[in-house]
């Protein structure tokens, strides 16, 4: 996807280990979001950022933390991974906020065993 | 709490057979309703934003409409390449605070 890259694309980790997912953008957009997507659920917002060092919680933030030290990077950390956090994680960016449409990354498939 | 319900969950059509996907929503105050398309293994792709009842938007074979309680995505004379999952989402808070998504409709267009 042009302008937004997620890494890694796939990861398998063990229960109890910390995991960090990275979202990198080259669009200089102010707003960045982390969502998770699970079968039987819609995309659910985990955390979002509205500027460098400005972040806030979404609907399903328990067990997750984020950091944004530069405009282009938004990191999602699972402090101690659990099997319930097995999911596909999507990063999204927007120049003017949620109401103006997102550009999504290609996703990270995380499996916690 | 915002709620978005999409129907049907899955739909199989023959090429050229027109149909509609439904998105029913409950929000405290609608700031925007969104349609996205998602292909397998990829992130969603933005299609439309609708802001007020009566609004319509079109893109190729797709047309989105909005009422006070629901939105429809009409697909006219679909082609196999229109096969995808179509997601509906709403924003009731505006600004940066994210969207509430439905579970999607999985659309298959058979040649």
Describe the structure.
The complex is a heterodimer of chains A (113) and B (111). With 113 residues, chain A is mostly beta strands. Chain A is built from no helices and 11 strands. Chain A has strands spanning 4-7, 10-13, 19-25, 31-37, 44-51, 54-57, 64-70, 73-78, 87-94, 103-104, 108-112. In chain A, strands 2, 4, 5, 6, 9, 10 and 11 form a 7-stranded mixed β-sheet that branches. A 4-stranded antiparallel β-sheet of chain A has the order 1-3-8-7, with no helix packed on it. In chain A, a hairpin with an 8-residue loop joins strand 9 (87-94) and strand 10. Chain B is mostly beta strands. Chain B is built from no helices and 11 strands. Chain B has strands at 3-7, 10-14, 19-26, 32-38, 45-50, 56-59, 62-66, 70-75, 84-91, 100-101, 105-110. Chain B is globular, with a radius of gyration of 13 Å. The model of chain B has no long low-confidence stretch (mean pLDDT 94). Classes of the chains: A mainly beta (113), B mainly beta (111). The interface between A and B is medium-sized, with 28 and 26 residues.
Percent of sequence in beta strands of chain A: over 45%
Query: Percent helix among the residues of chain B?
Result: under 10%
Point out poorly predicted stretches of chain B. none
Largest sheet of chain B: 6 strands, mixed
How many strand elements of chain B? 11
Number of helices of chain B: 0
Layout of secondary structure:
The complex is a heterodimer of chains A (113) and B (111).
Chain A: E1 4-7, E2 10-13, E3 19-25, E4 31-37, E5 44-51, E6 54-57, E7 64-70, E8 73-78, E9 87-94, E10 103-104, E11 108-112
Parallel strand pairs in A: 2-11
Antiparallel strand pairs in A: 1-3, 3-8, 4-5, 4-9, 5-6, 7-8, 9-10, 9-11
Chain B: E1 3-7, E2 10-14, E3 19-26, E4 32-38, E5 45-50, E6 56-59, E7 62-66, E8 70-75, E9 84-91, E10 100-101, E11 105-110
Parallel strand pairs in B: 2-11
Antiparallel strand pairs in B: 1-3, 3-8, 4-5, 4-9, 6-7, 7-8, 9-10, 9-11
């Amino acid at each position: 996807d042009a302008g937004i890259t997620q890494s890694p694309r796939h990861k398998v980790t063990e229960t109890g280990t910390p995991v960090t997912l990275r979202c990198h953008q080259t669009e200089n957009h102010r707003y960045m979001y982390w969502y998770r997507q699970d079968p039987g659920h819609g995309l659910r917002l985990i955390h979002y950022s509205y500027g460098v060092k400005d972040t806030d919680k979404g609907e399903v933030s328990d067990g997750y933390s984020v950091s944004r030290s530069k405009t282009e990077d938004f990191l999602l950390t699972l402090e101690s991974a659990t099997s319930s956090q097995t999911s596909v994680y999507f990063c999204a960016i927007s120049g003017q906020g949620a109401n103006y449409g997102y550009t999504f990354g290609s996703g990270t498939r995380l499996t916690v065993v | 709490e915002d709620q978005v319900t999409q129907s049907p969950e899955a739909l199989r059509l023959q090429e050229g057979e027109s149909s509609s996907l439904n998105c029913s929503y409950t929000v405290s105050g609608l700031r925007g309703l969104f349609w996205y398309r998602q292909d397998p293994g990829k992130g969603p792709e933005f299609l439309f934003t609708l802001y007020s009842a009566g609004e319509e938007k079109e893109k190729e074979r797709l047309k989105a409409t909005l009422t006070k309680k629901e939105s429809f995505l009409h697909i006219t004379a679909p082609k196999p390449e229109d096969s995808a999952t179509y997601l509906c989402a709403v924003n009731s808070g505006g600004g940066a605070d994210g969207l509430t998504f439905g579970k999607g409709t999985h659309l298959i267009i058979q040649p």
